[in-house]
Amino acid sequence: MKWLRGEITLNAIPSTIQIAEEGPRMIQLGIVTGLVFEAEILRAAAKALPTPQRPLIVCRGHGRNAAHLAAEEAVRQGAAALMSFGIAAGLDPRRAAGTVVAASYIHDGIKALCSDEAWTGRLYAALKEAGFDFLVHGPIAHAAEILTTPDAKARARAASGAAAADMESYGVAEVAAERALPFAALRVIADTSEDSLPPVAVAAATPDGRISVMKSLFGALVHPDQIPELIRLGRRTDLAREQLRRLADFGLARSFFV
To answer: Which CATH class for the 2-197+242-257 domain?
Structure first.
């Protein structure tokens, strides 16, 4: 594919590192999210794990730059592998809300950064075996801003061929490439390719990755015509949240197969 000329391929690493006279040691995983509720899902699941097995979970808000900073913070704290985790916008009309996308690469419209092939392969195979039926292995597009209309999503798909889009994975992949660390991305589609995002919902998203309930309620009162779209988006997002919880419970217990 022509747009893959700038692709960076990362070498796979084994699931454990052999340390002389100390036996096998788990690789420290760093997970970056763009939204606070995504990080909270991970932290809730991580409580069931012994402290040494818990990943580093960092959220610094949505967007490429925030994700880049969050990934760098995770590396400073000792992360030896990086993952992007959270919801995504659907671009492929065949993919429903709740579909899990295990990224093959992240495309920003010019260059693609590859996920670790062996790690992603283990993730995909394990999730498939565990019964995650709505699952796809494919590219994720980088979105510089929230994709609010079907037309914007169609343009993103035409430019990248991606199944979904998010705003953080490319920033995490950049840090992984710079540090020669393995990278993976697991994203769950919330709004589908045919969904429009009401302006009230977009305005409720704060730069630090939170969703302001008060802004949503006030916006709905001022713009009651947007309520049906808000309800539909809420249902889609609830479905994606539940899928994220399933992923966190299943994946964290196994260190996400890094």
So the answer is: alpha beta
